[in-house]
Amino acid sequence: MIRVLLADDQTLVRSAFAMLIDSAQDMAVVGQAGTGREAVELAGTARADLVVMDIRMPDLDGIEATRRIAAEEDLAGVKVLILTTYDTDEHVVAALRAGASGFLVKDTRPADLLDAVRIVAAGDALLSPGPTARLIARALRAPDAPGGTATPAALARLSDRERQVLALVARGLNNAEIADALGLSPLTAKTHVSRIMGKLGVRDRAQLVIVAYESGLITPRAPQ
């Protein structure tokens, strides 16, 4: 059973999401928060596995709430799925840098929300990785993009094959697609991804995309 905490300042939105999630046999809502501060507090007390987090909330916004959850040792197993819109690229990047495991547009279809909860809870961090990568590329290209920490030196820890795998992760490929592209088994591709995370000290695939762009392994493409 996936234990879900809903964090959104709009009561009607929370109620709708709660009804949807509770209708699924493999998940349950264990708490609801109307502010980011409440979300941080409830993440631990409600023993949530995953927080569905709105970005825009009073008292403490979703990005800072995500950062605090990710930094709390006792909440190491809690995943954060950010709710956002495609016109807020810089917020997506900031949320992923803060420790979010993925993002979802707020007007998504009900079935897609349930799938997103399952994907992120299982550790397959990036939801809709292709669009995510493009959002990150555009945001990092912006003059006022928030500063990152990854440098080309970070890639020195990786083998040539691991750099290839990282580049494909950043392009939005899942493990099966990476395996097909490189002539590997899916299990080997998954092992490579896990080792890359360990070497770079990141918590999930979302963070790998950030590292790939910030280090220069992947160059943002020109706007379409």
Automatic annotation (TrEMBL):
Q: State the PROSITE patterns in the record.
A: HTH_LUXR_2, RESPONSE_REGULATORY
From what superkingdom does this record's organism come?
Bacteria
HTH luxR-type domain ranges (all copies):
151-216
The family database entries (InterPro entries) matched by this protein are listed as: CheY-like_superfamily (IPR011006), NreC/VraR/RcsB-like_REC (IPR058245), Sig_transdc_resp-reg_C-effctor (IPR016032), Sig_transdc_resp-reg_receiver (IPR001789), Tscrpt_reg_LuxR_C (IPR000792), WalR-like (IPR039420)
**Response regulatory domain location:** 3-121
**Sequence positions bearing 4-aspartylphosphate:** D54
What Pfam families would the database entry show? GerE, Response_reg
* Assigned keywords, A-Z: DNA-binding, Phosphoprotein, Transcription, Transcription regulation
Q: Which Gene3D superfamilies match?
A: 3.40.50.2300
SUPFAM superfamilies (alphabetical): C-terminal effector domain of the bipartite response regulators, CheY-like
Question: Would you tell me the protein name for this molecule?
Answer: Response regulator transcription factor
Annotated organism of origin: Streptomyces johnsoniae
